[in-house]
Amino acid sequence: MDHSVSEILLNPVIQYGFAGFCLLLLGIIVWLMRQLLAVLKQTNQIIAANTDVIERVDSRTGELLTLNRSLHDKLIARPCIAVKEQ
């Protein structure tokens, strides 16, 4: 019973096993790609929401800076009450 390697590899059971394993691996790859696409879609939604929040914070920061400058100018225009009366 001397079986060579080529005879073993040409055995239909082994060939079908390899083909089945290839199909299984291909199925796993397709499933992983679908999972990856779902995660990428969620990531894009999160990035869009974060960008919107950052833009709103930036606009409010600009408004607060304008208000702060106005308040600064008003405080500077008032007379100082800490100077000695002469």
Q: Averaged pLDDT, please? A: 88
Chain oligomer state: single chain
Shape type: rod-shaped
The profile of the biggest β sheet is:
none
Q: Which structural class is indicated by helix and strand composition?
A: mainly alpha
Q: What is the strand tally?
A: 0
Number of H/I helices: 2
Q: Which stretches of 5+ consecutive residues score pLDDT under 50? A: none
Strand content: under 5%
> What's the order of the H and E elements?
HH
Evaluate the radius of gyration.
Answer: 36 Å
Percent of residues in helices comes to: over 70%
Domain count: the total is 1
Distance between the termini: 124 Å
Structural overview:
This protein starts with a helix and ends in a 9-residue tail after the last helix. The protein has 86 residues and is mainly alpha-helical. The chain is 83% helix and 0% strand. The mean pLDDT is 88.
